[in-house]
């Protein structure tokens, strides 16, 4: 795939995992900011769009083994993969990282007061991530799975309590954006 400055960031992120790594390394948000063009995202991240495009071109010349074509699998397969691979990973990583932060804080906290703030921020992010994943697993993913099931069976879909799938998605994105703003110098949480 050939990318340009006008290409949406989420299209680039969907292309393969190495493209996502390139975006992550550059500080480009492909989740909540995925609807932006690469040019706009690079401006926001204060990186060169030309440099990112060059890295993406080099990446496109390589073949990445084991990369799933997630745009061609069922939504149920995708939500299952997210739960079993990514959510499970995050749930396992949080306690390990908490323990490491506590250990570092005990050893170096006296000389580095900022470690206490880092530990607090990590706790805030961990709680937010766990709540976000719980909402996905209990509200959004079951509804997506039921939509797909109804479509394949030709049966009607029962109206969800949240009216439209856009509502929980918008709510999760707004909550994350408000929270993430605190890391960019904003006072919102």
How would you characterize the overall build of this protein?
The chain is mainly alpha-helical and about 190 residues long. It is built from seven helices and no strands. Residues about 185-189 have low confidence and may be disordered. Helix 2 (about 15-25) runs antiparallel to helix 4 and helix 5 (about 75-110) runs antiparallel to helix 6. The chain is globular.
Spell out the key features of this protein.
189 residues, mainly alpha, 7 helices, 0% strand, globular, disordered C terminus
User: In total, how many beta strands?
Assistant: 0
Strand content: under 5%
Summing up helix and strand content along with how strands pair, one would put the structural category as mainly alpha
Largest sheet: none
Evaluate the radius of gyration.
19 Å
Order of helices and strands: HHHHHHH
Topology summary:
Layout: H1 9-15, H2 17-25, H3 38-45, H4 49-60, H5 75-108, H6 114-153, H7 166-180
Helix pairs in contact: 1-2, 2-4, 5-6, 6-7
Entry summary:
This protein has 189 residues and is mainly alpha-helical. Helix content is 66%, strand content 0%.
């Amino acid at each position: 795939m050939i990318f340009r400055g006008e290409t949406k960031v989420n299209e680039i992120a969907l292309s393969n995992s190495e493209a996502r790594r390139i975006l992550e390394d550059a500080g480009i948000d492909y989740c909540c900011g995925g609807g932006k063009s690469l040019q706009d995202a690079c401006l926001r991240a204060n990186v060169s769009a030309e440099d990112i495009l060059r890295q993406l071109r080099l990446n496109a010349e390589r073949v990445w083994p084991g990369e799933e074509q997630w745009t061609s699998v069922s939504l149920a397969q995708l939500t299952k993969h997210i739960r079993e691979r990514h959510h499970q990973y995050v749930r396992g990583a949080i306690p390990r990282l908490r323990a490491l932060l506590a250990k570092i804080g005990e050893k170096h906290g006296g000389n580095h007061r900022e470690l206490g703030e880092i530990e607090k921020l990590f706790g805030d992010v961990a709680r937010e991530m766990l709540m976000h994943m719980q909402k996905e697993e209990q509200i959004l993913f079951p509804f997506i799975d039921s939509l797909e099931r109804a479509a394949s069976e030709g049966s009607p879909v029962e109206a969800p309590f949240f009216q439209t799938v856009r509502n929980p998605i918008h709510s999760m994105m707004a909550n994350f954006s408000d929270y993430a703003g605190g890391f960019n110098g904003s006072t919102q949480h």
